[in-house]
Write a sequence for this structure.
């Protein structure tokens, strides 16, 4: 009986915490403080995915509401009219349409105004920087767009075509995220130096263990005047992070959750065995099932901060009306929906 009462109390607390987060992430864009607009929530291949005839992809072709664009965020500051893109995806065309009017105070002049005031890129996997090609001479021909990447990612872009042409022609101006390389003065939490966008708005990168063929990988903390949002679309496994890097203390997802208000986290796959005929050890991500289990010991306000993003086309939680998404919500966590706004 007591156990049942305790469970009901936990459930009510979880619902209240969810409601609090939802209220703070309402659908109206704040006019007086920065906010984040979710432009995409799918894994690099999008939903529907090329050549996939399975039910979720087939349904998404028929019903646009089931479609998910590749993971990306727009950070807007209505006080200055500025905006910054986080990850530049192959879906950038559709995402620019979604970004129209954000922020409402944005004014642009001339025939080819800047699309953004800067780009922040997490890593060199197709979905996270493939859209850069649309900024080149053959398409938008951007001019001197500030692009924040790790030093290794900067070397890759500057040293390899076709990206190098974007750098040579100053379509992009690369800015290296500082404080992330070994011997570069890491602090206790193994995070890099902040990039200031306004006196009370700044971005802090942090290193993440992830397949690193061409670049290393970062996530971003976006600190606003009142709230902090974490963007962490790709990580190999939470356990890989527990003993990662050269910081004296292990970096743990729980520590990151403790110091943010909203966390958009890697929810690529729901469970093992999701991709027939392919070893999922080759493409490690925390399964949502593993995250549910790991986060189950956290208090409900901590769990209510979590929104899963970077959903693979095979992930049953991508269907917000389905059983898997309901399971996620029943555990006090959420699946990220596109178009959502988070006030900072
Ligand atoms: Zn990815
Ligand atoms: Zn990746």
């Amino acid at each position: 009986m007591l156990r049942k009462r305790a469970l009901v109390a936990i459930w009510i607390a979880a619902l209240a915490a969810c409601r609090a987060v939802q209220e703070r992430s309402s659908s109206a864009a704040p006019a007086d403080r920065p906010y984040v607009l979710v432009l995409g929530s799918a894994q690099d291949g999008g939903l529907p995915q090329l050549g996939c005839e399975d039910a979720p992809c087939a349904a998404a072709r028929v019903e646009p509401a089931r479609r998910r664009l590749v993971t990306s965020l727009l950070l807007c500051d209505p006080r200055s009219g500025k905006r910054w893109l986080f990850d530049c995806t192959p879906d950038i065309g559709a995402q620019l349409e979604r970004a129209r009017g954000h922020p409402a105070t944005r004014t642009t002049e001339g025939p080819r105004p800047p699309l953004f005031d800067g780009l922040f890129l997490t890593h060199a996997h197709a979905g996270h920087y493939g859209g850069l090609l649309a900024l080149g001479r053959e398409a938008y021909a951007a001019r001197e767009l500030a692009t924040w990447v790790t030093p290794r990612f900067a070397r890759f872009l500057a040293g390899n075509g076709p990206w190098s042409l974007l750098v040579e022609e100053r379509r992009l101006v690369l800015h290296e995220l500082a404080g992330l390389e070994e011997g570069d003065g890491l602090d206790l939490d193994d995070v890099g130096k902040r990039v200031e966008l306004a006196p009370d708005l700044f971005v802090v990168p942090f290193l993440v263990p992830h397949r690193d063929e061409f670049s290393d990988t970062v996530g971003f903390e976006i600190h606003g005047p009142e709230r902090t949002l974490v963007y962490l679309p790709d990580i190999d496994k939470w356990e890989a992070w527990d003993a990662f890097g050269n910081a004296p203390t292990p970096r743990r997802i729980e520590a990151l959750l403790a110091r943010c208000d909203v966390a958009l986290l890697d929810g690529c796959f729901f469970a093992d065995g999701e991709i027939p005929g392919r070893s999922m050890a080759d493409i490690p991500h925390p399964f949502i099932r593993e995250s549910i289990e790991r986060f189950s010991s956290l208090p409900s306000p901590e769990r209510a901060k979590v929104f899963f993003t970077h959903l693979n086309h095979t992930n049953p939680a991508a269907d917000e009306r389905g059983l898997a998404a309901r399971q996620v919500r029943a555990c006090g966590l959420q699946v990220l929906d596109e178009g959502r706004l988070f006030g900072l």
